[in-house]
Amino acid sequence: MLPSESRLRRREDFATAVRRGRRVGRPLLVVHLYTGGTTAEPANPHGAGGNFLPARAGFVVSKAVGVAVVRNRVKRRLRHLVAERIGSLPAGSLIVVRALPSAAEAQYTDLARDLDSALRKLSASSPTGAGQ
């Protein structure tokens, strides 16, 4: 399970990850990763009072994916997959995983393959490669 302190909850955090982060699309999902680090807005892996902030993740599974039972199954699978990988992300980073309609029919291993592929591409790409 994804720890509570590792979950995105605020709309502003989702918006920051989607608007300012880098994006990689795969057949089953789209991953947005925001690590900060620009000169105008430096990365701050510390919260108020100097507390260390872990990487945080959020999920978007729209009604286009399917009925509520299917959406919840996809969300549970994605949460589990991200929980296994969140430790490898930079501290203070924000990640949003958006499931595409094809994720409804996908197997767990297919979701894992697409997520790993997207994270590899995001970690290999430079900050100037935004919007790929």
Automatic annotation (TrEMBL):
<dbReference type="GO" id="GO:0000049">
    <property type="term" value="F:tRNA binding"/>
</dbReference>
<dbReference type="InterPro" id="IPR014721">
    <property type="entry name" value="Ribsml_uS5_D2-typ_fold_subgr"/>
</dbReference>
<keyword id="KW-0694">RNA-binding</keyword>
<dbReference type="GO" id="GO:0004526">
    <property type="term" value="F:ribonuclease P activity"/>
</dbReference>
<dbReference type="GO" id="GO:0042781">
    <property type="term" value="F:3'-tRNA processing endoribonuclease activity"/>
</dbReference>
<dbReference type="InterPro" id="IPR000100">
    <property type="entry name" value="RNase_P"/>
</dbReference>
<comment type="subunit">
    <text>Consists of a catalytic RNA component (M1 or rnpB) and a protein subunit.</text>
</comment>
<keyword id="KW-0819">tRNA processing</keyword>
<comment type="similarity">
    <text>Belongs to the RnpA family.</text>
</comment>
<keyword id="KW-0255">Endonuclease</keyword>
<dbReference type="Pfam" id="PF00825">
    <property type="entry name" value="Ribonuclease_P"/>
</dbReference>
<dbReference type="InterPro" id="IPR020539">
    <property type="entry name" value="RNase_P_CS"/>
</dbReference>
<dbReference type="InterPro" id="IPR020568">
    <property type="entry name" value="Ribosomal_Su5_D2-typ_SF"/>
</dbReference>
<dbReference type="GO" id="GO:0030677">
    <property type="term" value="C:ribonuclease P complex"/>
</dbReference>
<protein>
    <recommendedName>
        <fullName>Ribonuclease P protein component</fullName>
        <ecNumber>3.1.26.5</ecNumber>
    </recommendedName>
</protein>
<comment type="function">
    <text>RNaseP catalyzes the removal of the 5'-leader sequence from pre-tRNA to produce the mature 5'-terminus. It can also cleave other RNA substrates such as 4.5S RNA. The protein component plays an auxiliary but essential role in vivo by binding to the 5'-leader sequence and broadening the substrate specificity of the ribozyme.</text>
</comment>
<keyword id="KW-0378">Hydrolase</keyword>
<keyword id="KW-0540">Nuclease</keyword>
<dbReference type="GO" id="GO:0001682">
    <property type="term" value="P:tRNA 5'-leader removal"/>
</dbReference>
